Amino acid sequence: MTFNAIQVRRDLHQIPELGFKEYKTQRYLLDIIEALPQERIEVEMWRTGILVKVNGTSPNGRCIGYRADMDGLPIEEETGLPFASTHSGQMHACGHDMHMTIALGLLTKVVNQPIGDTMLFLFQPAEEGPGGAAPMMASDAFRRWLPEEIYALHIAPQFPVGTVALKSGLLFANTSELFITLKGKGGHAAYPHQTHDMVVAASYLITQLQTVVSRRVDPMDHAVLSIGKLQAGNVQNVIAETARIEGTMRTMSPEAMDAFKKEVEGHVKAIELAFHCQATIDFGANYYQVENNDEVATTLIRHFKQSTTLRFLECEAAMTGEDFGYMTKEIPGCLFWLGVGPTEGLHSSKIIPDEAALDLAIQELYRYFSSK
Ligand SMILES: CC(=O)N[C@@H](CCC[C@H](N)C(=O)O)C(=O)O
Questions:
Q1: Are 360 and 340 in contact (CB under 8 A)?
Q2: ipTM of this predicted complex?
Q3: Fewer CB within 10 Å, N- or C-terminus of the chain?
């Protein structure tokens, strides 16, 4: 059976599921994997993820890992595409449908035209949160099949289709989620002095948190604090008793993240005092930076520079996060950007990646892994 990358991607695009709830996605991938010739394949399920080992032909071959993330985001799709998400309020807005399709296409190719090395394909849940990479790496199957090198890609709307970009060393930031709850005293909007208004407290806190980046971080360093969600109150003439702030923090080193968290804690304590409220902070899921191994990145860059189908672009580190960072922390590896632009940015409800990138990536990755 031939692999129709566009059809697979569109099928996956229609069934986005949140982290560790990728049941339909897992079933869809398994149906395709189970329809392949099985002689070289070993499959293990891990929660909603899948590990597939495709044994190579060389007795001295190494085990090379290739990881694709599986989850979607809690975003209402607004692309107007005929194959838009059928799951209300959920969307593949970060390209994981593209990532899985490329991994599946490469897996199919490696099964049908075996290469010397063994390849371990990791279909990993929950990249957007709470993080599937670290617990998947602790699974029996991963430890048993431990790859000696590991790869992943991320779609890049900022780069045109037909291009790839990567650099050696730090590529993606350290991340920490941020969840803050403030609890004060609600009441009638006409009697503010009898209450402790959590709308006002949250507003001050959010503004003050921006000063951590602008006033506490060395201007020559980089950091981000973004609040993506704010909830407080129920009705226009009642002062809110609680507020909930949700965001993310990004730094260029784990040490900077520790310092960042201390600053945030300081601001939250000050708000408790100033606004007579109780606060809780939860730093949620934390991802280690993606650090491309020098040797692996250099080899991959050399390959891309010789490619006749993909054009290599230089790039800088980005403040995006990826739990693939836990894999490159332990195993020499590399993540690269795959151009799918121009289109809206990652996490946009209107992003439409160029599907021409799918076959380009599958062919080029096969060439790379079969020539190693
Ligand atoms: C590539 C990408 O967009 N990754 C996400 C990872 C999110 C991690 C976590 N939920 C957080 O928000 O800190 C990103 O937002 O960079």
A1: no
A2: 0.98
A3: N
